[in-house]
Amino acid sequence: MPGLDLKFLERPRRRFYCPLCEKPMRDPVQVSTCGHRFCDTCLQEYLSEGVFKCPEDHLPLDYAKIFPDVELEQQILSLPIRCIHSEEGCRWTAQNKLLQAHLSMCEFNVVSCPNRCSAKLLRRELPEHLQHDCVKRKLHCDHCGDEFTGEAYENHQDVCPEESVYCENKCGARMVRRLLAQHSVSECPKRKLPCRYCRKEFLYDTIQNHQQQCPRFPMQCPNRCGTPGITREMLMAHVKEGCSTATVLCPFKEAGCKHRCPKTAVGRHLEEATHTHLSLLGGLVNRQRLELRELRRAVEELSGSRDGTLLWKLTDFSQRLQEAKSRTSGCLELFSPAFYSHNYGYRLQVSAFPNGNGSGEGSYLSIYIRVLPGEYDGLLEWPFPYRVSFSLLDQSDPALTKPQHITETFSPDPTWKNFQRPRPGALGSVRGGCLDETMLGFGYPKFLSHEEMRKRNYIRDNAIFIKASIDVVQKILNS
User: Fold this and answer.
1) Where is the TRAF-type domain positioned along the sequence (predicted)?
2) First to last CA, the chain
3) 393 in the same domain as 458
4) Res. 475: pLDDT tops 50
5) Nearest C-alpha neighbor of 3 from the set 123, 117, 68, 99
6) Residue 386 CA from chain centroid, whole number
7) Does residue 374 sit in the same domain as residue 265?
8) Which one of 248, 286, 328, 452 is most buried, counting C-beta atoms within 10 A?
């Protein structure tokens, strides 16, 4: 029993131990010349090192003098012993000579799988291994009946053609696996199909609904013009613009023409209704002129000041002065944006004559203010009562010299026609021509001479600044 770590029930006597391994001897042999006993295996290993002397007394040894000690072996085999797997749980005890027979059936002994799968395990674990774990066990498929080894059976389970499976598209159908491919291609209501028109993929049970909305679906022109290849997304554009038989409105519909005709007859209609269209266009131009005038007035209302102060910049002054001088009448009036004396107050406007007006014509700058029709005239007292100040601003650098603004102030006389309530619609705003005295408002024909304007920086960068102020503080406090 070489290789086994024997576990005796009681310690053997000294003479049973091998002097070389110091364990109970296995297959004991005796040296006849000296009477010493050793394990056959231990002695062979000792002599294999080339030392032919007795390990005990170091006397020369002769192989012919070494014999098996049968009597000692029988004594050792009759000693009581535990199973070598007693620590693992085996409770077997008997004579040493019965150990090998016991190990051939001991449940704790390690054995190899009889199917030669390379597994080593306890004998007690072998039935479970053979039934469930051995990769070389023989198994029959419950679906197709074929026999497989354990390893092949595991691979076969996912591909058995006779196994009943559910459709992978989750349509709810169940069938044997060999029919699944055909079902997925031609029968499954959840299979994906490309739309034949837009090529996008849809489920089979929804593609019919998609084709009722598909933008690439071919359509027939509702006017039956015969144009091929019209898609749903292009149908409206075709009917409106491309269809030769579609009924369209006259191109002069914005001017008021209500005529409708096929697109092919538009040209003839335009030729026959030329005079009508010209008349309609004339009316449209007049309406647009009135709308522009109203829009201009609204813009001026929104952009104008409402705090009683106007700061008006006149650009290109030298060109405007030269233009005024070149006129036969010498009269060129420039108009400021409208502004209000205060919130919900009088609507006013300043005008200037670069080359003068009246007594100042030819050598002075003339400045006037006039009252325009306003939104709140019905709530105001008349005539216009507030003091007015005009200023021509000196544009000199304050860091170099103190600016010397030119300022003139007046208080309106209630008897003057210029400050009575203006008639609604009588704007008194005639660009490019001289106005009569009533339309001019009130001001200074000789506000400042051209000669004085050149002495300082009243003209700078070819521009002048005119400021108009309405003194309404006291009136507001008293109201």
Assistant:
1) 101-154, 156-208, 210-266
2) 134
3) yes
4) no
5) 99
6) 63
7) no
8) 248
For residue 448, the one-letter residue type is: L
Given a contact cutoff of 8 angstroms between Cβ atoms, the answer to whether 477 and 342 are in contact is: no
**Domain range for 84:** 7-103
Q: Which residues contact 136 (CB under 8 A, 6 or more apart)?
A: 113, 115, 116, 117, 149, 150, 151
| Residue entry with tokens 């933008």 | 215
- The angle subtended at Cα 98 by Cα 92 and Cα 103, nearest 5°, is 60
Phi-psi region of 17 (alpha: psi -120 to 50; beta: other; left: phi over 0): beta
Residue type (1 letter), 318: S
Query: With the CA atoms of 174, 175, 178 and 179 taken in that order, what torsion angle do they form, in degrees rounded to the nearest 10?
Result: -90
pTM over 0.70: no
Q: For residue 478, name the pLDDT band (cuts at 50, 70, 90).
A: very low
CA distance 301 to 308: 14
Q: What is the CA radius of gyration of the chain?
A: 62
Residue 166 lies inside a defined structural domain of this protein: no
Residue type, 69: D
Judge if 284 and 396 occupy the same domain. Answer: no
H or E element: which one contains 182?
helix 180-186
- CA dist., res. 123 & res. 107, Å (int): 5
Would you say the C-alpha torsion 224, 227, 230, 234 has a positive or negative sign?
negative
Average pLDDT, the chain: 84
DSSP line for 185-222: HHT-TT-EEE-TTT--EEEHHHHHHHHTT-TT-EE--T
pLDDT band for 63, please (50, 70, 90 cuts). confident
Token pair belonging to 263: 């697109």
What lies within 8 Å, CB to CB, of 318 at 6+ separation is: 459, 462
DSSP state, residue 336: P
Find tokens 């039956």 and name the residue.
224
Q: Measure the CA angle with vertex 190, ends 187 and 191; round to 5°.
A: 65
Does 126 map to a domain? Answer: no
